[in-house]
Amino acid sequence: MQKLLTQIKGDRAIWAIATLLAIFSFLPVYSAASNLAYTHGAGNTFSFFVKHFMHLFLGFSIIYGVHKVPYRYFKGLSMIILPIVFVLLLVTLLQGTTINGANASRWIKIPIVNMSFQTSTLAAVVLMVYVARYLSKIKDKVVSFNETIIPLWAPVFIILILILPANFSTTAIIFTMIMMLAFIGGYPVKYLLIIIGTGILALTMFVLVAKAFPGAMPNRVDTWMSRIESFANGEDTEADYQIEKAKIAIASGGIQGVGPGKSRQKNFLPQSSSDFIFAIIIEEYGLLGGLFLLVLYSWLLFRIVIVSQKADTIFGKLLVLGVGLPIVFQALINMAVAVELFPVTGQTLPLISSGGTSIWMTCLAIGIILSVSAKRQEIKSKEETENDNPLDILSEVI
Fold first, then answer.
1. pTM to 2 decimals?
2. Which secondary-structure segment (H or E) carries 92?
3. CA 65/CA 59 separation, integer angstroms
4. What is the spatial distance between Cα 328 and Cα 117, in angstroms, rounded to a whole number?
5. Can you say whether residue 69 is alpha, beta or left, with left for phi > 0 and alpha for psi between -120 and 50 degrees?
6. What local confidence, expressed as pLDDT, does residue 276 receive?
7. What single DSSP character describes residue 185?
8. Whether 11 contacts 370, CB under 8 Å
9. In the chain, where do the E strands start and end?
10. 389 or 163: whose pLDDT is higher?
11. Per-residue DSSP letters for 197-229?
């Protein structure tokens, strides 16, 4: 065990936060999954526990492996993997999977192991690394808008267009995070306004075409619009049913909660172990449990900013913010949906919700952050070693 700990590099606080979130996730996931166990798994709740454990085990293996890779390698890897991501997204979209006429092409099957993989989550991490790489190249340089269209914005819009038909919320989050990263990276604001306007125009055109030619291709435009309209007008829809059950669960929790495994709403709330697990946590662990999670994610945000500020290169700074901020942003969105501050999005709670792809890609992002932090520690250690060299001190005296 001691040998393993010596192999762990990077920010220890981020390691601790990720571990605490993972450990905390077991009881709520095991509790919330009981409904799925009896409706789809012949009452075998333990299998869901084992499945979640395996997802987290593989996730932390990803963190360990990735944090050992020097972060400068991610520059080149992003350029290599981006075309692969493009192909995976295209294959996913062309599957044409539909649920009640809406596009549900979000997953592909991994051969041999026969596991589902959500390609858009991988695309999000790779795209943020790619954007960070390009922004670090043009930092403090005078660039024209036309210079950046092909190398920067073309890949961004191609990837987002492939994700959009089946997953608007993920598309919106990625676009927002890229805009934020570009702003932090010093990309001219006047050009960002053009990109935002182009994005809004492209989304409007997509919605109009989808409404005018509903049979042209499967999409989820009607689902998006109904969720937004029901959120604004308070109409009764399936999304409202989920929100109502989530609010009942939150109201039942009070300050201390009803106790681990004693949630009642998990039997009625769809996606109780993934999209709405925050409501189950509040019901079972009360306001204290919810605040505990909020503190952990806030602490994670604080450490991400610290690691970014201490990074030794511009690319390192932007890389940490690019892959780290979406984790906290997604967590806040998930919590906001549960308390009806935001329309239903289908976003999971990072490192808490069940689901392999979400856990693995969150762990990939954390591994990248730790890689940057590990490099900083290496530089600091070398500096301290040089300062402690008695020959250096003697030469200074002489």
1. 0.89
2. helix 73-94
3. 10
4. 22
5. beta
6. 87
7. T
8. yes
9. 98-99, 102-103, 107-110, 115-118
10. 163
11. HHHHHHHHHHHHHHHH-TTSS---HHHHHHHHH
